[in-house]
Amino acid sequence: MMSVPPSWFMALGALLFAIGAAGVLIRRNVIVMLMAIELMLNAVNLTFIALSRSLGSIDGQVIVLFVITVAAAEAATGLAIIIAAFRNRETVNADELNLMRW
Amino acid sequence: MLTWVPIGVTIGFAALVVAIMVTINRLVAPRHRSPVKDLPFECGNPPSGSAWGRFSVHFYLVAILFLVFDVEVILLIPWAAEIRRLAGFGLGEALIFIAVLVVGLVYAWQRGALDWD
Amino acid sequence: MTAFNLAAIDIAWLPICPLIIVGVSAMAVLLAGVRVRDDESQGLGVLTLALIALAFVFALGLLGQSGIAFAGAIAADNFAVFFELVILISAALVVLMSIDYLPAFGLSAAEYYALLLFSTFGMMLMATGGDLIVIFIGFEVMSISVYVLAGFLRRSLKSNEAALKYFVMGAFSTAFLLYGIALVYGATGTIKLGPIRAALSNPMAGNPLLLSGIGLMLVGFGFKVAAVPFHMWTPDAYEGAPTPVTAFMAVGVKLGAFAGFIRIFMVHLGPVSPDWSIVLWVIAAFTMTVGNLVALVQVNIKRMLAYSAIAHAGYILVGMTAAGSQAGGAILYYLLGYAFTNLGAFAAVIALERRGVESDLITNYRGLAVRHPGLAAAMALFLLSLTGVPPLAGFLGKFYIFSAALNAGLVWLVVIAVINSVISAYYYIAVIVAMYMREGEAVVGALGRRPAVITALAVAAIGTVLIGIYPEPYITGALHAFNSAFGAALPRTASILP
Question: Which residues in chain B have Cβ-Cβ distances shorter than 8 Å to C140?
């Protein structure tokens, strides 16, 4: 039985995390930024699973369950905040949310 | 290398099924092109309003509630996996957890988040 | 995979009693308050206050405990109890500020108090967490509740914007913290803080996995404590949020975040401190300098206090860079004084606020001493304490931290810190000058029936003065709390007490 070495999963996790971080920094639509943050969290989940497997410790898998639920709560809160802002401003573009500077 | 053969067969089979379905559709489906049908939104019907129209906020509310309650249940999986060894203690813990979720549900209910009017 | 052994888990309910009380209180307030009308919400505030007091009594009873519970997931030590007590005091003062504020601004009280209690729960969990995942859960419970609180003025565009910015930056930083936890887990093979420390005692400096993990965790905590260069969200979030929430963000969130930050970095990552202390040195220097310099040009008092909060995070980071048990005790004392002082300053801002009246500009404070002498005197007291004028709490806090840093040989960092303290005097005293030496028109009339916020002001003022002029029990208590929890694990350093 061939198996993929854990370092590949780690590399994939790092790559996905970088893509997510770049997404938050580059994209200006708040909903897309939220999706990019979810991508970052899922990249970390992948890393945890890979480490859990290679270390032979179950902690990593338990953490992933917690992270999934926390991410869901965060996404729900974020969407609610975005809806509240949208109803007052009619925009989800981060650059147009500029009432306050410095 | 032999372990990869079933995966290859699966992919090949999936591709074959898709190809057959697309071909049948090509052969059998009637085609009447019209300007209305080429529209990306509500294709086939005359458009009734903008695609950027607003939905009732209730859709978001229900979606958010579903998202939270649906995902939180994942925390019961470790308990389910070790249900015999955790025995009474585990059952108590699971009940406490569900009670916390029920508090959230009761709150949403009392606030009228579940009424559709 | 190691087999799970139920009998090996020491289930001890006592150390988490205050946590359970606060968590259950949050749910009870949420359910009890659903039917309460927005303009009759004072009763709910009093109920919240009573529940916080109950948790405070239970936390007091835990003083002197030591050890771990739940197989290391909960750290039952005096460090945790000290933070729990200060966090509960802060939460109580914020409730006092909110009791009159909520009906005046038409905010729904049930959700507000429940979220306040939930975030208090998160902060206390961060202080009590004995493994990285519990600290992470606490971090998130605290943060998510405060994101919502920041946007609580739903009709206010500024509040919407504050919540959105705080949320996006906060969630972004959470991902960094979590990735850091993952890499530290990969490098040490455990998420429990005690075993992590044990694993690090073996020579493994330079392990790239560990170093990246520490760096990412530093970014995550840096965002939450508003350290430069991760502070961009702070002024906007502080300005837009309802003012009691701003006070809670400036004190409560900072307490919770520093509790986790100190426990992880100063104590359990202590064996590899040469790897991160130089980074912390630079961050501390930049945080103090940028915070104070940008505060100089602010015209809005909430924004000015936001930059002041950034600068104060910098002073605390000086203490963390110094490491050692004396610096730890100094930081605890500093945070205690900072909590009273900063909450007092925000209470004074709240006392002047009215719905639909712009009163947050520093020019609005002109001539305040004539119109409201008591309020102006209290505000002046808090600003002097923030500057670090003896004999107030702020002075001794800085004194102890700087002494510890000098003992650790961080001469240049202390020089930067002292220069910054001098710079900060300029913008704090500018407000006092506006209140006492300029004439201005009243933007708001009589203070009127706001007994709760006046009580908060009085308590904060008494705290600021008492901790300053009679520091003995507090500094001894802070040093004892830190030493009894971690003293054995840290190198002995010269005493900061004269």
Answer: none
- Residue whose token pair is 């002047």: C352
- Whether the CB-CB separation of C144 and A74 falls below 8 Å is answered with yes
Q: Please state, in angstroms and as integers, the Cα–Cα distance from residue C385 to each residue in C245, C379, C420, C463, C484, following that order.
A: 22, 10, 15, 11, 29
C300 - beta bridge partners?
C361
Nearest by CB to residue A75, choosing from B57, B67, B74, is: B67
**8 Å CB contact of B103 and C30:** yes
Asked if A48 and C240 come within 8 Å (Cβ–Cβ), the reply is no
- pLDDT tens string C453-490: 999 999 999 999 999 999 999 999 999 889 888 877 77
The tokens for C275 are: 């790897």
Residues of B in contact with C35 (CB under 8 A): 110
**Which chain A residues contact residue B71 at CB under 8 A?**
68-69, 72
C131-190 pLDDT, tens per residue? 999 999 999 999 999 999 999 988 888 898 899 999 999 999 999 999 999 999 998 888
As a whole number of angstroms, the distance between CA B37 and CA B41 comes to 9
Residues 6 or more apart whose CB falls under 8 angstroms from that of C375 comprise: C348, C351, C352, C368, C447, C457
How far are the Cα atoms of A46, C134, C219, C222 from residue C177, in angstroms, in the given order?
15, 13, 7, 10
Q: Which of C5, C6, C22 to mutate to test the interface with B (most CBs of B within 10 A)?
A: C6
The number of residues making up chain C comes to 498
- Give pLDDT, residue C4: 52
pLDDT at B69: 85
Give the rounded percent of residues in chain A with a pLDDT score beyond 90. Answer: 51
Domains parsed from chain A with CATH numbers? 6-91 (1.10.287.3510)
C361 in reach of chain A (CB within 8 A) = no
Integer angstrom CA distances of residue C170 from C147, C148, C338: 8, 12, 23
Separation in Å, CA of B69 to nearest CA in chain A? 9
Instruction: Give the one of B82, B106, B110 whose C-beta lies nearest to C4's C-beta.
Output: B82
Whether the pLDDT of residue A71 is over 90: the answer is yes
The minimal CB distance from A59 to the residues C168, C174, C185 is found for C185
Q: Is C34 on the interface with B (CB under 8 A)?
A: yes
Give the pLDDT score at C17.
Answer: 92
CB contact under 8 A, A62 and B78: yes
Each domain of chain C, given as residue ranges in start order, spans 12-489
Q: Is the ipTM of this complex over 0.90?
A: yes
Residue ranges and CATH numbers for the domains of chain B are 1-52 (no CATH), 54-117 (1.20.58.1610)
Question: Distance between CA C81 and CA C72 in Å, rounded?
Answer: 16
For C357, phi then psi, to 5°, come to -115, 125
Q: Which amino acid is at B31?
A: R
Touching subunits of C (3+ CB pairs, under 8 Å) are A, B
* Beta carbons of C252 and C87 less than 8 angstroms apart: yes
pLDDT tens, residue by residue, C317-354: 999 998 888 899 999 999 999 999 999 999 999 988 88
Q: What is the pLDDT of residue C12?
A: 80
- Give me the half-sphere count of Cα atoms (radius 13 Å) on the Cβ side of residue B102: 6
Per-residue pLDDT tens over the stretch C403-442: 999 999 899 999 999 999 999 999 999 999 999 988 877 6
Tokens of B52: 């950027």
Q: What residues pair up with A93 in beta bridges, in sequence order?
A: A29
Q: What is the per-residue pLDDT across C68-102, written as a single tens digit (0 to 9) for each? A: 888 888 988 899 999 999 999 999 999 999 998 99
Q: At what angle do helices C109-128 and C78-105 cross, to 10 degrees?
A: 170
